[in-house]
Amino acid sequence: MMNGETACLLVRMIADFYAARAADFSATRQGSWAGWQQLAAQVQPLFEEAARMGCPVAVADVACGNGRFGKFLRQKFPQSPLRYTGWDGNEALLREAAANMPEGAALHRADVLAPLLGEKRDPWWAEADRGAYQLVASSGFLHHIPGAENRARFLGQLLDLAQPGGTVALSLWRFADHGPLREKALRSTETALAAVPALAGAGGLEPGDYLLGWGGDGQAAQDPDVADAASQGADAAAPLFRYCHSFSDEEARALVASVKSRACLTASFFADGRTGALNQYLLLVRED
Q1: Full domain range(s) for residue 21
Q2: In what side-by-side order are the strands of the sheet with 279-286?
Q3: What sign does the CA torsion over 215, 113, 87, 55 have?
Q4: pLDDT in tens, 151-162
Q5: Using N-to-C axis directions, what is the helix angle for 91-100 and 68-76, rounded to 10°?
Q6: Element (H, E) at 8
Q7: pTM for the whole thing?
Q8: Are residue 147 and residue 200 in the same domain, yes or no?
Q9: What is the CA radius of gyration of the chain?
Q10: Strand extents, DSSP E, the chain
């Protein structure tokens, strides 16, 4: 289990990164991921049925960022009404999400990370419409949650949002599977730990944990949206770092097993990035 002090430091590091770099980050995340096409194929019957019935598909997007997943669904299934609800902790990204989504989309500013660590009451969760969504998604976020127990807790929260029979779709970043990317991530982590001595002494990172650079001389692992991640934020005066976890096969299996009494895995596939395998996608159907 991750040291609580370490986890809190990592969460604050992530919040500081997005507060400083929301615009730069969002600029690299304007298009859709290739894996979303495969995801869409899995849920296509849901949207086709909605189009026939004239009923909106209820979609929850947790840590929605600039809303590009909702925009993708709207463009992919233009004949299907969409009732979209998104949560994110960054106000600038939510403003962009509002521009990406049609009138009527519900967007909420919410700190999704800190409450997982018990830092404060979770207002987004208290006010969320549980059991109301046919599709619950979280793309490019799970790697920001420190600690396997917290990641499993988050998956349980996603399932709580889904209707019985609803689908939960999430992506797991797998950058450390690829040698050159892993080496970049290791160098970046070494630099970050030297720059943040409090983190180095707080109990340490877990296997698969990295601190990725953005700007200045910080190194960065390639991500699915950036062709040359080492150039991310090159105009910055000083490097910024964000905590990211690279998942393994064993961790993906353990995550699914953590909700085996509640959900069934219906699809698992790899996509995205130059390698076509930087993300692993998991689709689960709620059964309880």
Answers
A1: 4-28+179-245
A2: 106-109, 82-88, 57-62, 133-138, 162-173, 279-286, 263-271
A3: positive
A4: 999 999 999 999
A5: 10
A6: helix 4-27
A7: 0.90
A8: no
A9: 18
A10: 57-62, 82-88, 106-109, 133-138, 162-173, 209-214, 240-245, 263-271, 279-286
